[in-house]
Each structure stands twice: as C-alpha cells, then as structure tokens.
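Progress report, Aim 2. The chain analyzed during this reporting quarter is listed below.
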Amino acid sequence: MTPLEFLALFSDPDTLSTNSIIVAFAYYLRRYQGRLEFASSHVRSCLREALLRVPQDLQELLRSLSLGDKAPLLPGSRNGRYSLSVYGLREVETAIAQKQSTPERVNAFLDFALPYLQKTVAKVSDENQRKFLAEAIACLGVEAKRATIVMTWLAAIDHLYDYIITKKLADFNAALTRRTDRLSILIITSKDDFSEMRESVFIEVARSAGIISKDVRKILDEKLGIRNSCAHPSTIEIHDSKVVNFIEDLIDNVVVKHPL
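Predicted structure tokens for the chain:
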C-alpha cells in the first residue's frame, strides 16, 4: 500500500490537519513498512508520495508531537528519531474506524484497493486458485470483509497442503514421527489426511519440517488468529487496510513463495 492509498482509508483526508497527517504517516511507517523508529526523511518521503506539501518546519513539528504525557509520538533511541506512541496508535485507528459504511465509501475503497489486489492475485499461477481468490475479493463489493478473510485463508492453506503433498511429503511425515502426541503415528498420504490436525498444529509441523521459514510461520500464526476472529460472531471491527494486508501477506509470502 502506498502512502496515497493509505490516506484513502480516512473518511475525508482533506480535513486532516498537518499534525494529524504526520501522526498518520507514523502509523503507516510502523504498520506497513515495519519501521519501529523513523526520521523526518521517512515522513518527508510519505508526504511527497501522497502528493502533499512538505512543511518547512517538519523537524519542529515532529519534536512538538513528542512532548507531553499523552503525546502521539515518542522520542526515539537516537536524536532525530521518533516512534508512534499508544496514543498516536489509538488516534489513527479511531479515525480509520470512523469511516461510514456508505455506497460512496465502499466505492472509494474498491477504487483504490481492487486494482492493487487484482495485481496481487495475478501472481498466483494456478487458475482455480485465482478464480477462488477473485470470488473472495468480490465479497468486498458488499463489504463482506469477514468472508474475504475466511476465503483467502482457505485458499492459502489449501495451497500449502498441495505444496506439501507434491513436493515435501516425506519431510512433513518425518516431522510428524518426531512428535510425542497422537500425531506421531499419523502418516499423510492425501490432502484429506490433514484434517486430522488443527491448523495451528499443521503450521507448527510445517515449520518443524523446515517447509516454511520462521517468518512465514509468524505470518500464518497471525493470520490464523485474524481468521478465527472473523469466522465467529464478535464485535471486532475489520478495517479495510487489514483486509488488503491479509490478502497481500498470504499470497506474497505463502502462495507465491511455495510454487507447485
């Protein structure tokens, strides 16, 4: 997601103050670029990519936003570095969550998200998977974001099942024999056999077998938690940005990285 696309998550970006935009990009840098700390140069790049004017006093604005007990920013480990505080995090997520669910808002989200997601799905080589994922993304048109997340998860896990069956079956079965529970006697011979274990255990065994990396396991564990929240009635709010990130992460780091 680009900085310009990120600003589209807000109900009316034109009404955001300069300070609010800076805090929003601090959130963007942490959430989408993995920067726990950032410098003014990072914020400057975000502003330019979002086609916004860069304040001449950007350094001073960052410093002032890090002052006070409930400041949205925190001073970093080095001079000129900053990080997002819990108050800044709440400010941005609250602003994103306040978007009204109207046809206009849905269309605005689809206008920026769908081309991006379609490019991501295009990376999938299997035609059936592409069609399934296209249906999952189509659910966004009626704001069925939970359905999109559940279907995308099913597609990614099914892909891993196929990958293991065709390329890593011996490694997976060897990892099962090293377990000390009932699964130590389980031998996978077909995709249906994976139903004998919980998905969390499947991820654990795949990592133990060296089939997925430590980082991919972290992604799968995180996404499984989100899927579980979406698959059961709850009051949890699913933000547009989370849906986009969910699809992108699973396709780029699970499906594409483990080709059949």
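Residues 229 and 235 are 9 Å apart (CA to CA). Residues 103-255 form one domain. These observations will guide the mutagenesis work planned for the next reporting period.
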